[in-house]
Amino acid sequence: MKRNAYIAAAASVVLIAGGPAAAAAAASADTARTAPAAVAPADVDAQAAAAAALKTYPGVVESLDKDDAVWHVDVIGKNGKHAELTVDTRSGKVFTENADDDSDDSGGNKALLAAKVDAQQAMKAALAAHPGKVWSVEWDDDGGAAYWHVEVKESGGKTWNAHVDPTTGKVTAASDDNDNDNN
Q1: Bridge partners of 72?
Q2: What percent of the chain has pLDDT over 90?
Q3: How far is Cα 76 from Cα 85, in angstroms, rounded to an integer?
Q4: What DSSP string runs through 82-145?
Q5: Residue 135 to residues 10, 64, 79, 159: CA-CA distances in angstroms?
Q6: In the chain, what is the straight-line distance between the N-terminal and C-terminal CA atoms, in Å?
Q7: Distance between CA 175 and CA 153 in Å, rounded?
Q8: CA distance linking residue 44 with residue 68, whole number of Å
Q9: What pTM was estimated for this model as a whole?
Q10: Phi, psi dihedrals of residue 77, rounded to the nearest 5°
Q11: Is residue 136 within 8 Å of residue 66, measured between CB atoms?
Q12: What is the DSSP letter of 183?
């Protein structure tokens, strides 16, 4: 209670001596001492981008890659329809770039939709093998054995390309891009 009386008395002196401008300056100085510091927003990582995309367009992530301030996410719905989404790396807001009206009747996504390991699980497996940040994940089914291709960038600058088995979730192959000059 005494504190409030002292503050009121000090404010009166400021108002009499310096007018409203001095009072505003005193008030903002007091607020600056007590207000919490602004926290810079953290970048949305690959896992959060995938989750946000799937919340907007339920299905299975087919691919995800970071491009400057956005994540590009391709999602195949359980009905076979395809959507291209972007997720803002700062806010996590999802934008639909393109959504097909027709389902894929060719059956090209059957293996993806039936995979026991999804993109999020493949990212976790790749990060367990090579800690860092996921930069991209993509379903690869070129007529041979299907796998998840996950690109991980380490804090030291190395880029790892991991192949994750869609049945077991094990990292079956990995290469360091820095050794192959593919940066």
Answers
A1: 65, 86
A2: 51
A3: 11
A4: EEEEEEETTT--EEEEEE-SS--TT-TTHHHHH-SS-HHHHHHHHHHHS-SEEEEEEEE-SSS-
A5: 56, 8, 28, 9
A6: 65
A7: 12
A8: 12
A9: 0.70
A10: -70, 160
A11: yes
A12: -
Cα–Cα distance for residue pair 151/168, rounded to 1 Å = 19
Packing angle, helices 46-56 and 119-129, rounded to 10: 180
3 state DSSP class of 172: strand
pLDDT in tens, 44-60: 999 999 999 999 999 99
CB 150 within 8 A of CB 63: no
Token couple for 140: 């690869």
150, pLDDT greater than 90: yes
For residue 65, count CB atoms less than 10 angstroms from its CB and return exposed for 0-12, middle for 13-18, buried for 19 or more: middle
Q: What is the pLDDT of residues 53-83, one digit of tens each?
A: 999 999 999 999 999 899 999 999 878 899 9
Q: Confidence band (pLDDT; 50, 70, 90) for 97?
A: confident
CA 174 centroid distance within chain: 23
